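Late entry, evening session. Most of the bench is empty. Finally got around to the prediction I had been postponing all week. Sequence below, unchanged from the version circulated by S.P.
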Amino acid sequence: MCVVCGCADNGAAPGGQPASPAVADERGDLHFGAGAARVSVPGMSQERAIKIEADVLGENNRLAALNRAHFKSHGVTALNLVSSPGSGKTTLLCATIALLKAREPRLQVAVIEGDQQTSFDADRIRATGAPAIQVNTGKGCHLDAQMVAEAFKRLHTHGHAHGHEHRHAHGHSQGHAHDHDHGHDDHSHGHGHAHDHGHDHGHAHAHAHDHDHDHAQQLLLIENVGNLVCPALWDLGEAAKVAVLSVTEGEDKPLKYPDMFAAAQLMLINKVDLLPYVSFDVERCIAYARRVNPAIEVLQVSATRGDGMDAWLHWLLHAGQEPRPVVPAPSERELALQQRIADLERELQKWRAAAAAAAQS
């Protein structure tokens, strides 16, 4: 994965020979993901690759946990939208924001946009009236937890504070008003009233407002860099990953890129208005996705025609609030067992090839 391919800038030195590829069958197809690290890097051993991945992802997961705690403490539901380029994520977000404004006017929605270059997508989001911060990753192929933390902080700095902070500031503004009055009257009374009323009122109002509803009151929608590989590894502190797959891409994507769909809580099959014009088997796509992730939820939507948008909004406001359990990194024993299974599968393939050759002779 990208943790060891260079985009993480880990500065790793070579550490031995990479794993030899597995030969899938008599056709000679190669599988470079059969080793314990599930990736092959020139000049790097599988053990070194595993060590680098553990170090880099371990630090990212620490920062993601801080993000998750920060979002939770302020009543923010953060969702990580992942897909290949051109799946329609930005168009979907624009349509979603427009509908939420009409149906849930009290809901606060903000967006973090991830791309390698340009601010095109963030500009499209800002045109809807929702605050957005663009994160350009340069050569990087994914967002990470630190990028999201910095972007979220700037959403607040630019005047788009989340609800808790906004009401806290409001409380202090009341406090300063009283403090101004006490300058002309009684000092001790003015100071005490300003501090107690301003600070406490801000917090009390925030918590009362956030928890008196049975669905989200603040949404942070993170549009990740278009890539069905690397973002699967990187926890951003989100409540859930949402994999967006358009019908123009083919129904086999969940099997081609299983890590992404295994990590997602929801798969949105987008652009269903184009189904009459493309060869895409919806039921087969769903079956493939549930082969790699039996628990994945599936919705079919069209951001342009409006199909399925009611169900999508309901999921955003309700089911999306439940955080997905964090899957721990595989243990050394698990990695060793995976390697053993891969070795046995190669032996089985060789035996079958030899048996087939013997049968033909």
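Two things to note before I forget:
Residues 332-360 form the longest helix (29 residues).
The longest strand covers residues 108-115.
Will write this up properly tomorrow.
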